[in-house]
Amino acid sequence: MPKTSIEAFINEKVLPEYRQIVAEFRDLVKHNFPELTEEMRGGTEKYYGVPVYRLKRILITLSPTKQGITFAFSDGKQMIDKYNLLEGVGNKTLNIRLKSADDFDADMFSYYITQAIKADKAKGQK
Description:
This protein is 36% helix and 23% strand. The protein contains three helices and five strands, in the order H-H-E-E-E-E-E-H. The radius of gyration is 14 Å and the shape is globular.
């Protein structure tokens, strides 16, 4: 989908107090991980679509909540979590939840995104 649909999603679904988190994340991906594709995924009458970031597969899904922004890493269970931020009980996906733009750390996110990209590239070689 065109970028405007992501912009519309942010304006419609992300609470104003959390838009800075999304802006900083998108800026980081755009400038430091240009190989990732940003697109909208899903969307039905009952559920709205969400932005995803992919290389070959979806690596990260961005979901707004009333309490902040959740970043779901598809292969989070395989990641080394040196910042102790990954949450969840799934067999594959783990999440990072941010409640304030002050919590956004570009180096920390770069660490997790780099792992996600390496995992995706390794799966493609098997």
